[in-house]
Amino acid sequence: MTISLKSALAQAHSNIALIKYWGKRDEALKLPQNGSISLTLDALWTRTRVTYSESNGPDQLWLNGQLASEPMRLKVQRLLDLLREKEASSSGTPLGAAKIESENNFPTGAGLASSASGFAALALAATAAAGLELSRPALSRLARQGSGSACRSLYGGFAEWQRGESADGSDSFAISIDETPDWDLCMAVLVLNDLPKALSSGDGMAQTVATSPLYPAWLASIDEDLTHMRQAIASRDFSALGELMEHNALKMHATALASRPAVIYWMPLTLELLARIRDLRQSGLECYATIDAGPNLKVLMQERDWPRFQAALAHWHELKALIPCRPGPGAFLVPDALAGQMP
Ligand code: DP6
Questions:
Q1: In this structure, are 164 and 229 located in the same domain?
Q2: CB-ligand 1 contact for 172 (6 Å cutoff)
Q3: Is residue 163 within 8 Å of 34, Cβ to Cβ?
Q4: Model confidence over 97-122: pLDDT tens digits?
Q5: How far is the CA of 17 from the centre of ligand 1 (A)?
Q6: pTM assigned to the model
Q7: Is 199 found in the same domain as 169?
Q8: From 112's CA, which of 190, 195, 218, 270 has a CA 20 to 30 Å away?
Q9: Do 175 and 203 belong to one domain?
């Protein structure tokens, strides 16, 4: 008896939003209230292998070598079921149960965008293993339905997730702004806490949309932020990009803080480091911070300033890790010959 397995391995890198996605207009389809712009990072990534068997049954998810929790498994199965619907309508051959093996080279669920790289890698691996060829906008739409921010990780460098207008989400996917920016940028990831967060980004944003009186002001300001961010990227204006990135992140957190109950992702150390970044700026080291749904900071600087930045934080023993990242690539398939080379 021959058992035919359909398998593919994909790698996707995490991305950090410069203009944040915060709030959904459709929870099930993961349609955003606002557009967002991100930078994909080279040093943080997920590798995911999807293998379909010929038998039916529940999909099995292994995350960093361990069987994943049931809620996580169900999120992944939901994405694969979307693909099964496509496959059934195109070839009529049903895809069997899948084994999904996923590894992150960084802490999972700690606000380092593991769901972004995770669902982008999953969308690409699951599609390739099924023998389907989808365009990048179609892959981006699929990844979006796993985790919104994942739709941007299909692309390298700077990407924009277009909010879209349609109710079915067909026009809500990411496009490239500049895949391989020739710009000496460094985004340093400061890990203060590497434990999974207590409140997911999805729950935090839902609570903000439902209860924060500042949410309408957040939404009203986004189109202008997007326009200015596109301009800063196009003109390579580091100061304008950094200032706006930090402003947009603090505005998102201010909006979340005003929720009832308050949505608070910061630790005392988060605020101390924000003050340190300001001091560094005043002393001539131009760097800017952004913060996602967690306590960790990401600090953007020009690559030449990285050694000084690293030295300035060297005595900060509470930091669990300091990871310098450059602009990274979009999601790609890993040839089987290279599959063993995990770090
Ligand atoms: C603060 O994409 O993790 O990082 O769509 O519910 O899975 P879900 O949320 P997720 O939210 C990311 C929020 C953010 C901002 C951003 O990446 O744009």
A1: no
A2: no
A3: yes
A4: 999 999 998 766 556 668 999 999 99
A5: 9
A6: 0.95
A7: no
A8: 218
A9: no
Residue of 201, 209, 250, 253 to mutate, ligand 1, most atoms within 8 A of C-beta: 201
Find the domain containing 52 and state its range: 4-182
In degrees and rounded to multiples of 5, residue 16 shows phi and psi of -115, 130
Average pLDDT over all residues of the chain: 93
Ligand 1 neighbourhood includes 149 CB (under 6 angstroms) = yes
- Which of 182, 215, 232 is the endpoint of a domain? 182
**Averaged pLDDT for residues 296-325:** 95
Q: Report the residue among 72, 149, 172, 226 best suited for mutation to probe ligand 1: largest number of ligand atoms under 8 A from its CB.
A: 149
Identify the CATH number of the domain in which residue 143 sits. Answer: 3.30.230.10
Does one domain contain both 149 and 219? no
Give the chain's domain count.
2
Q: Cβ-count burial of 22 within 10 angstroms (0-12 exposed, 13-18 middle, 19+ buried)? A: buried
In a domain, 330, yes or no: no
**Residue 241: enclosing H or E segment and its boundaries?**
helix 238-257
Query: What's the pLDDT score for residue 31?
Result: 98
- Please check whether residues 11 and 31 belong to one and the same domain: yes
- pLDDT band (50, 70, 90) for residue 54: confident
**Unique residue bearing structure tokens 């001091």:** 279
Report the atom number in ligand 1 closest to the C-alpha of 116: 2
User: Does the bond joining 94 to the residue before it have cis omega, within 30 degrees of 0?
Assistant: no
Contact in structure between 42 and 35 (CB atoms under 8 Å): no
Using the predicted structure, report yes or no on whether residue 205 has a pLDDT greater than 90: yes
Contact 156, 182 (CB under 8 A): no
Percent of the chain past pLDDT 70, that is, above it, reads: 92
The reply to whether 210 and 108 lie within a common domain is: no
